[in-house]
Target: FRG domain protein
Amino acid sequence: MMETYVAQSLNEYIELIAKIGSNGTEKWYRGQSNCEYRLTPSALRKVFAIEDQRGYKLNQPILDDTCSGSNNVVAFLPVDRMVTEFSEKAKDCLEYDVSTRIEWECIAQHYGIPTRILDWTTNAINALFFAVGDCSIGQTKEDDIRHFFDSQGFGSGGGAV
Model:
């Protein structure tokens, strides 16, 4: 069972992270703007139902949710093809050589291509940066983080680090 901790301020967050990390083991963090989001890579978030639960083919694929329990037969996005096309178009724009498929997926993910990768960090402040997401209030991301805590933070869905 995973334990849940709640911080109401940046100082509380830093103190909490120090306390959690005090046992000497390395922790991994992932910042998400909603604590109810599942740990699902972007390539697996959007699937398309092609048959219903009785095996009848649908006239047109419909957007489905892998977590909905619909029991439809689904098709996933063509991740390999998208990453290959991205790598072919991007290779001349990079200032370094990319030699493996996983490197290409990492780069493609940061340009909005759906992949099978989830970002993690060993830095709790980096995770917080991603947890506050798109709340653009101040001039810098640091201003956004301060405002985030000052305004009581997340909406009803909460956030997760």
Summary: The longest strand covers residues 57-64. The helical segments are 10-20, 42-45, 79-90, 101-109, 124-131, 141-150. The mean pLDDT is 80. Strands lie at 47-51, 57-64, 73-76.
